[in-house]
Design a protein that fits this description.
The structure holds 2 protein chains of 2 kinds. Chain A is built from 11 helices and 10 strands. By secondary structure, chain A is an alpha+beta fold. By secondary structure, chain B is of the alpha+beta class. A 4-stranded mixed beta sheet of chain B has the order 1-4-5-8. Classes of the chains: A alpha+beta, B alpha+beta. The A-B interface holds A 3-7, 251, 254-255, 262-263, 265-268, 271-272, 274-276, 278-279, 282-287, 289-290, 307-308, 311-312, 357, 360-361, 363-364, 367-373 and B 253, 261, 264-265, 268, 271-273, 276-277, 279-281, 283-285, 287-289, 291-292, 294-295, 298-299, 302, 308, 311, 314-315, 374, 376-378, 380-382, 384-391.
Chain lengths: 374, 404
């Protein structure tokens, strides 16, 4: 097994700079805060710019289907930046989860290829109809049934990125077994609820005999699992972005705040906590890069790299956000300060696509450290 | 990347391959005595290829060294047993290369690299550990520009009992602030004023020594760097030490986690749910630490070192301690036994050797040796994160006036 490439290429650095500039201009923390409590937490104009002008919607879509033909490495860089801005955007749901599931379908057939084309241009956005907490390797869900005419019945809870999506990619069990189906969002019943993470709204989705288009493929379960694996692996990069912002902002704040006649950041007990946190973020970045590279190269080691990255980075993001709130003192506890947006994102991300404990359980099998038999 | 100094062109892998073949043809490893072969390898510029020509290198990119090492290992050529001479290779050599005179470089580097002359480091003192710049070993110059006469005590000196030479820092001016009054020397360990006593440690053995210096004579030609500039020279040594301790990139599941992972697989009767989750957490942390070190290595290889290197030793210490503690606990009743408390003098440092109890105890040193974890956190906070230093009273006062 050769060593993964853990660095950022020049192309990736350029992509990062473009996304960062746009988000700094169009998605500053106060704008996010003002938007998240409204009816439309996503800024459709921002997503159109990200999707169409920067080409982010089609990053993982092959060029022959109108996409960028890039890899998980580039998608990871985008997620670092989106995480760093807690930007409400359907990138994870549409450009990573739904797109990867569609790429596992039969692309010679019109259905999946057509939808990928529409997603790649940003003309439409899709959501993958699974709970955000779905874990790679946890089996094909049985909550939605398809009848012989392709009508769907059932319910999926806690789906991310439905708000802002036009299309749902729905795993459902039909007469021929597991399959993926394309459904217009307008055909389903979408019930938003108030989610812990204000910047990634969730909804429960019900299907009551609504019309769906089957997306043929050899193995829908494998396509779904590939999507969850890619999502979990790339979520680690989002967590690195969240953690890095929390660290940078806390260091900046403690470098200017005075108490006891001193800069607060000169107290050794605080410096040591920040040094430890810095080391965690540096380590999480290496783990997230390894997962992105393994996904990008189709490495057989990808399941291990993803389980390692997700079980590590999830904890680091939560720790960084908790430290940011604590070390900001009173201001960190206010609604006005954006630290809580990062805390809520980090805590929800810890559950998203498999908790650290579930990823460690997966790892136990992968690296032959089996659980005790009672 | 900058052109290597001292060469008109960049040496590539193909040229190194040719030079290795020529060396092996001229000195077939089976027929040559090891010392002779190693000297020839040094003279061929294949010792450390990134060093300058004439000093064991070819001014080649450091990343090409593994090419040479692999080809020579495949030919069963003798090596210089780098673990035995780690202080010389990792700390003395880079410092001599950077600050030494031409005469010093040519005198010291060849036998240092071949292992014919072992080196040790006389830095820490009983009263100067983390506050190394407070050291009190004195070097006083004989009148009329003569030799330096050194008196004092050093501690935690590995290899002092086998060393031919030492790198030494001593106070040459007590009347200026402490960082300004230190000078860096090469000390002859065969001087009659040098007394080495084993220092027994918590593992039972004596890896290190105490070194007593009484009227030790050092010629001015063995000074490294300017008088009073020893603190700056020592920084180069210490940065190399931390990279050497924390910067090794091992294969997956090598290092400290290998022991408990193997015990878990081989002995199902030891398994409990609680230990399982701790073992998996440790396994993940060890793998992430490995990837972090690998990322630092890749940054260095492309010539853009990041600040991440500063944290490697901190992680290394914390993980070694946690995982070795987990292993003793995992072993249960067997963890109650300890191999052997006899005082022995190991030939080289081994963090992962002997039994779980030894590893647990030895790992306690990892957060002390080469800069304590507390000092490393200060360094990260101040030099990487840019946070201000604690207010200090010792930086500007003359060393002789500091409370002690």
């Amino acid at each position: 097994m050769s060593a993964p490439n853990l660095l950022y290429s020049d192309v990736e650095d350029d992509l990062r700079a473009a996304v960062r500039d746009l988000l700094a201009d169009r998605c500053p923390p106060d704008a996010v805060l003002a938007r998240v409590e409204g009816e439309q937490p996503y800024d459709p104009r921002l997503w159109r710019t990200l999707a169409a002008e920067l080409g982010l919607a089609g990053l993982l879509v092959p060029e022959k289907l109108g996409g960028q033909g890039a890899s998980a490495r580039e998608a990871a860089v985008v997620l670092e930046e989106l995480g760093g801005a807690v930007a409400p955007s359907p990138f994870l749901g549409s450009a990573v989860l739904a797109t990867t599931a569609l790429l596992g379908c039969d692309l010679a057939d019109g259905g999946a290829a057509d939808l990928l084309r529409r997603l790649a241009t940003g003309e439409q956005a899709a959501a993958l109809a699974v709970p955000l907490s779905a874990t790679p390797g946890s089996g094909f869900p049985a909550g939605v049934r398809a009848d012989g005419e392709g009508r769907l019945t059932g319910r999926v809870t806690s789906v991310a990125d439905v708000v802002g999506a036009d299309v749902l990619v729905v795993p459902a069990v039909g007469p021929q077994g597991a399959g993926l189906y394309e459904v217009a969002v307008t055909g389903a019943t979408v019930e938003r609820f108030s989610s812990l993470d204000l910047t990634r709204p969730l909804a429960d989705v019900s299907f009551d005999g609504c019309a769906a288009r089957p997306l043929p493929g050899d193995d829908a379960a494998a396509a779904l699992d590939a999507a969850l694996l890619a999502g979990a692996g790339l979520l680690a990069s989002e967590q690195v972005g969240v953690a890095q912002w929390c660290l940078d902002e806390t260091v900046r704040y403690l470098g200017q705040r005075h108490q006891f006649g001193r800069v607060v950041g000169s107290f050794q007990s605080l410096k040591h906590r920040l040094a430890d946190l810095w080391l965690e973020v540096v380590s999480a970045r290496a783990a997230a890069r390894a997962a992105a590279d393994a996904l990008a190269t189709g490495s057989p080691d990808a399941p291990v790299a993803v389980a390692v990255a997700q079980s590590y980075a999830a904890v680091v993001a939560v720790h960084a956000a908790e430290e940011a709130v604590q070390l900001h003192g009173g201001i960190g506890m206010t609604w006005e300060h954006p630290a809580h947006l990062y805390l809520k994102r980090a805590k929800a991300d810890e559950i998203a696509l498999g908790t650290p404990g579930r990823h460690r359980a997966a790892l136990a099998e992968l690296v032959n450290l089996p659980a005790p038999v009672n | 990347m900058a052109k290597p100094r001292g060469t008109e062109r960049t040496v590539d892998a193909a040229e190194l391959h040719t030079r290795v073949s020529e060396l092996l043809a001229a000195h077939p490893p089976g027929d040559s005595p090891p010392d002779g072969f190693l000297r020839a390898r040094f003279d061929a510029g294949l010792a450390w290829v990134h060093f300058p020509e004439g000093l064991g290198g070819l001014g080649a990119p450091r990343s090409l060294q593994p090419v040479v090492d692999a080809e020579l290992a495949a030919a069963a050529a003798p090596d210089n047993d780098p673990r035995r001479i780690g202080i010389g290779l990792g700390m003395a050599a880079p410092t001599i290369l950077r600050y030494g005179t031409e005469e010093q470089k040519h005198r010291f580097l060849r036998p240092l690299w071949t292992g014919e002359e072992v080196w040790c480091q006389l830095f820490s003192e009983p009263g100067a550990g983390s506050d190394l710049a407070g050291l009190r070993t004195r070097a006083v110059r004989e009148p009329g520009g003569g030799d330096w006469i050194v008196d004092g005590q050093k501690v935690w000196t590995s290899s002092a009992h086998t060393a031919r030479w030492a790198i030494l820092i001593a106070r040459t001016d007590p009347d200026v602030p402490k960082h300004q009054g230190i000078t860096y020397f090469v000390c002859d360990m065969t001087d009659p004023g040098v007394e080495v006593r084993p220092l027994r440690q918590i593992t039972g053995e004596a890896e290190f020594n105490e070194v007593f210096l009484t009227g030790v004579r050092i010629p001015d030609a063995h000074r490294l760097g300017e008088i009073g500039d020893g603190w700056r020279v020592a920084q180069a040594t210490l940065m190399n030490e931390r990279v050497a301790i924390g910067g090794m990139v091992l294969p997956r599941e090598a290092g400290m986690v290998a022991g408990p992972a193997a015990a878990w697989r081989e002995r199902p009767e030891l398994r409990t749910p609680e230990l399982h989750d701790r073992l998996l957490t440790a396994w993940v942390d060890a793998e992430v630490a490995r990837l972090t070190a690998e990322r630092v290595r890749q940054q260095l290889a492309v010539g853009s070192p990041g600040p991440e290197g500063a944290g490697l030793k901190l992680t290394f210490a914390r993980l070694n301690q946690r995982i070795s503690g987990l292993e003793v606990e995992l072993l249960g009743e067997e963890g109650l036994r300890y191999g052997n408390w006899t005082m022995v003098r190991p030939r080289s440092v081994d963090f992962y050797g002997r039994d779980a109890g030894y590893r647990y105890l030895r790992a306690k040193g990892n957060s002390i040796e080469g800069g304590t974890s507390e000092i490393l956190r200060n360094i990260i906070a101040e030099r990487v994160l840019g946070l201000p230093a604690e207010p200090r009273t010792d930086k500007d006062a003359a060393w002789k006036d500091l409370p002690r």
